[in-house]
Specification:
With about 325 residues, the chain is α/β, with parallel strands linked by helices. Helices cover about 40% and strands about 25% of the residues. The chain is globular, with a radius of gyration of 23 Å.
């Protein structure tokens, strides 16, 4: 490769393509995330290599991987991206957050408990601010955030989300969402004071789709209690899960933000012993938190989360209905 000139320039769009290639591992996967063809991705990477004068990719088996210089370039790119977000926020600071647009992506339960109440509040206080909401989960949620398709991500700490040390994001902790055990109302372990998960180790379980966030969470919590759950049933929403549990098909864990489940025949009891909970947080691209509209949304999400925390101290059971 040639030596860099003193006045070389880099197309920021090409840096984004390199970042997507690093995150997704293959040209094909990066192309899908960017809504480009694999050929277009390859051309962008080749153009970036010419711009920088360094080799960015090296062969690895049938595929490619980033070189050490490419990874160093991505470190600089993160700083550049953060500074651009700061500049964007600085320009937007001429407003007071009364106008503009903010896109929010969230888990479904985050929409129910946090995002929707915050949106209602914002419509009253800042009617000129446009807010759109989409349901999503990691890793797609963070891909959309990286690409600028959304401005705020509301999610919980779990794999495959980024670590808390990831400097690309500014995070705001929102709430701790306890997980309660949900049993048929006549189950012998349905004690009002609570149940230890080990008491349910030999029971059939109801959980989310394999590989989904709810399924991963159930597996992780049970593993922490010392067993692997025997998951017999997989569903995509909490109402279906509750219906199966009420029918006697199994037991489950349900986050408190998803309660109450709208059917009788359930006992919802606290989990004793090692606490089981999800930790909700909001994430924005580093630097974007200074944007008045984004800051307003973060402030309102935090306020709603605090109100939920104050109100939701006990599990909600409809077993007596």
């Amino acid at each position: 490769m040639s030596t860099l000139s003193r006045d070389f320039t880099i197309d920021l769009r090409r840096l984004r393509v390199l970042r997507m290639l690093d995150q997704h591992g293959t040209v094909s996967a990066a192309a899908t995330a960017l809504h480009l063809t694999p050929s277009a991705v390859s051309q962008q990477i080749a153009g970036l290599a010419r711009d920088t004068g360094v080799q960015l990719l090296e062969k690895r088996g049938r595929g490619v991987r980033l070189t050490a210089r490419a990874r160093r370039l991505l470190e600089h790119a993160a700083v550049i991206e953060q500074q651009l977000q700061v500049a964007r926020a600085d320009l937007a600071s001429w407003d007071a957050g009364d106008a503009g647009h903010v896109g929010i992506a969230s888990l479904s339960t985050g929409i129910t408990a946090i995002v929707a109440p915050a949106l209602k509040s914002l419509r009253c206080s800042h009617p000129g601010l446009s807010v759109t909401v989409s349901e999503s989960e990691p890793p797609q949620l963070f891909t959309d955030l990286d690409l600028g398709d959304v401005d705020v991500a509301v999610t919980v700490h779990h794999t495959p989300g980024p670590p808390v040390t990831d400097a690309r994001y500014h995070r705001v902790d929102l709430l701790v969402d306890p997980l309660d055990a949900v049993l048929p109302a006549d189950h012998p372990a349905a004690h009002p004071d609570g149940v230890r998960l080990t008491e349910l180790a030999d029971q059939p379980w109801v959980s989310g789709y394999p590989g989904g966030s709810c399924s991963r969470l159930t597996e992780a919590v049970c593993a922490n209690a010392g067993f692997t759950p025997d998951v017999r049933h997989h569903v995509g929403d909490w109402v279906a899960l509750g219906a199966l549990v009420a029918s006697g098909a199994g037991v489950a864990l349900v986050p408190r933000v998803a309660q109450p489940l709208p059917m009788p025949g359930l006992a919802v009891v606290p989990v004793l012993g090692t606490p089981a909970a999800r930790h909700f947080y909001a994430a924005v691209r580093a630097g974007a938190e200074a944007d008045p509209a984004v800051a307003l949304v973060l402030e309102r999400l935090t306020q709603v989360a605090a109100e939920w925390t104050a109100a939701a101290q006990q599990p909600t059971s409809l077993a007596a209905r």
